[in-house]
Design a protein that fits this description.
Elements (H helix, E strand, L loop, with lengths): L12 H20 L8 E5 L11 E9 L5 E8 L8 E5 L4
Antiparallel strand pairs: 1-4, 2-3
Length: 95
Amino acid sequence: MGAIAPLPVSGSPTLLVFRGLMLSLVTGLQLLAPTPLMAQTEGWLLGPNSRTGKESTVVPTDCVEGPDGSISCNTKIVNPPGDTPARPYYDPFSN
């Protein structure tokens, strides 16, 4: 039969090494875990006499793809003829 490894005893050097290895393993796994996804939210600040509604659209312009695959764009608001412009309100990464 094979030899049975002794169990670490409290205060022994073996237990300290075992705890150190477990701490290193847990820390390493946390560093390898993916970061949570984050997104920005959009709202509208409507002023007096602002007749902007669902017909208004936010159009992306000048989009650039980053080396990590993320996409960044400038935006502009396009209103139907006769509507006053609304001011966009962005809350980036509110998660």
